[in-house]
């Protein structure tokens, strides 16, 4: 059986960007990308779809059209790892052998963790921008609502794009404000965590919008159950002394962000850390025990914000270090935890939160970071999708040069 130079698990943002960055450096590599889905999604635009500012179909492309020309797409699912034998197991118990492995299957949305949710998603005013089929329903619900109560929920961290739960709220509120309905809508944000945004520098500009829209913030309040037909949601609220109470609220619209975790075949594997994500060195993105294994994207256990923006900086680091490892050279590249969260505070304005490990600000442009800007909306709405498809997935590493040790 043949041995691939590189097997990549997952053909999402991270798997494709890594493949492109590797092939850019060494076109002769034999690369297999294992990806079960024939459709690839640009998920960052789903927030805009939910706000009525982006065509849903433009977030979806065929996987075939995005696989780099010199890579082989294996349309299958990885089910397990044999890192000591340098093999992955795919469907039908087949094995693929590799010289090095890139693990990038993203994360799992755990809809089932909220009782009653799955039965009512997409009806009864229950929606989520975290699914391609549902983001358009968010916009439908927003347009229909003229009075009543709208609930927006955020689960425990980590989640992909930690700002997305509140982005849905801001864009909805802005629409209701423009229509003159906002005063008749009770807007509640229920956050399982204790802060509005993890990097405190960005909280003041966000709080201005919270006040402007008259939204109520409920911290340490976790959605645990939904009943579609009666339009009720149950939350578990935790007090400072650790005591909890459950309370049920009725709603007219409910935007849910589901709890998130590593996929089961990762959690159950030897590659996982104690939290279930792929264990990596935070700087080199190399697995601590298996030197020929690297990980990036949402499944990666580094403490960065899980975003496509992070992938843009991680892919060149993985490419450089993996090739160095194969050639028995010291690994030259370091990732400093960059991630970005463009907070769509109103239609036409974005607070661009860019930061690395430990919440250290890493602005791309020489502008005061914690300010809502029209220019950043244009970047998010028009430039980023192009940067993603035409640059990041093609190995053109715009402003993504990896750091040195
Ligand atoms: P994905 O892109 O999800 O791809 C994972 C791939 O792995 C999928 O194609 C899947 O089919 C495949 N896979 C799964 N299981 C297996 C298996 N067993 N074997 C093989 N393949 C498998 N990021 C930003 O930078 N900015 C934003 O504004 C932003 N907003 C967001 C808003 C929303 C609503 C959402 C949902 C996400 C947002 N993100 C944003 C996050 C961004 O989309 C993710 O961080 C990014 O897609 C991560 O890339 P990934 O390749 O790790 O995962």
From TrEMBL:
One of its GO terms (biological process) is sulfide oxidation, using sulfide:quinone oxidoreductase. Keywords: FAD, Flavoprotein, Oxidoreductase, Quinone, Transit peptide. One of its GO terms (molecular function) is sulfide:quinone oxidoreductase activity. InterPro entries: FAD/NAD-bd_sf (IPR036188), FAD/NAD-binding_dom (IPR023753), Sulphide_quinone_reductase (IPR015904). Its cofactor is FAD. It holds the Pfam family Pyr_redox_2. The keyword Ligase does not apply. Residues 5-124 form the FAD/NAD(P)-binding domain. Gene3D superfamilies: FAD/NAD(P)-binding domain. It comes from the Bacteria. This is FAD/NAD(P)-binding domain-containing protein.
